[in-house]
Amino acid sequence: MVGSGLSNQTGAAIGSLAFPVLGPVGVVTVRQYVAAVVLTAVARPRLRSLTGWQWRPVLGLAVVFGTMNLSLYTAIDRIGLGLAVTLEFLGPLAIALGGARRRVDAWCAVIAAAGAVTLMRPQPSTDYLGLGLGLLAACCWASYILLNRTVGRRIPGAQGSAAAALVSAVMFLPVGVAVVLRHPPTAGAVGCAVAAGVLSSAVPYLADLFTLRRVPAQAFGLFMSVNPLLAALVGWIGLGQGLGGPEWGAIAAVVSANTVGMLARDSRRTGA
């Protein structure tokens, strides 16, 4: 779980090094290609056997997958890795707390909202477009979760996710051509973009698949809470993106809200 989280955030950090040459769009394009190759090789989707009823959520998942990565990487370029990932994490947190009816869940929602407001408070240097893109990534991640559930019910195994990744890669082909024509890539930039795809797509997917065979889903979900903190640490150590006290406090609030919510749900299931 630690390896998966660090790999994901380190991949995003390495990918950001290619922004001056390829831009966020170019890096995301390469990442989509890598994800498609890995997922297709692992799941081997039978595309011809899919029905229209199965294809509909797959196409929606493909659009959401591409939009999520594009908005997140553009947000990283504008506001930094830690803040972008923290805002994106509000998406799954909203899904987790959306249907809750208990008082503790309400308090968790308040704490998370306070963290989000702190991150987005008006300042002379505030990048509102970057913040908005982070929130768009959050909405896409929430949609990704819901669509993945639907795809999982309609298509066995990981074939649906692989099909969506493949469609998303095809959608990004014209984008890739345009990026190459406008910004001729260097070997170093392409290497960083490929590394981002491997570390942020291939490694986490395979590591999570391996982990979920041995770790309860509740414990896995609880550990996912630390991703914003890992992103902030990787951005600080690897990219020199230092954060102030309010930002660290806001990240801690979002992480704490999800942690408390997960622990409360687990205790309710076990009757503790």
Judged by helices, strands and strand pairing, the structural class is mainly alpha
How many helices in DSSP terms? 12
Largest sheet descriptor: none
What is the helical fraction, as a range of percent?
Answer: over 70%
Computed Rg:
18 Å
Distance between the ends: 25 Å
Question: Strands, helices and their partners?
Answer:
Elements: H1 2-16, H2 19-43, H3 52-79, H4 81-98, H5 103-119, H6 128-154, H7 159-171, H8 173-182, H9 187-211, H10 217-223, H11 227-239, H12 245-270
In short:
By secondary structure, the chain is an all-alpha fold.
State the main characteristics.
single chain; 272 residues; mainly alpha
Question: How would you describe what is shown here?
Answer:
- The chain is globular.
- The chain starts with a helix and ends with a helix.
- It has helices at 2-16, 19-43, 52-79, 81-98, 103-119, 128-154, 159-171, 173-182, 187-211, 217-223, 227-239, 245-270.
- It has 272 residues and is mainly α.
- Helix 2 packs antiparallel against helix 7, helix 4 packs antiparallel against helix 5 (103-119) and helix 4 (81-98) crosses helix 6 (128-154).
- The longest helix is centred in the N-terminal third of the chain and has 28 residues, at 52-79.
- The chain crosses the membrane at residues 12-43, 55-73, 79-97, 128-147, 159-181, 187-207, 219-239, 245-264.
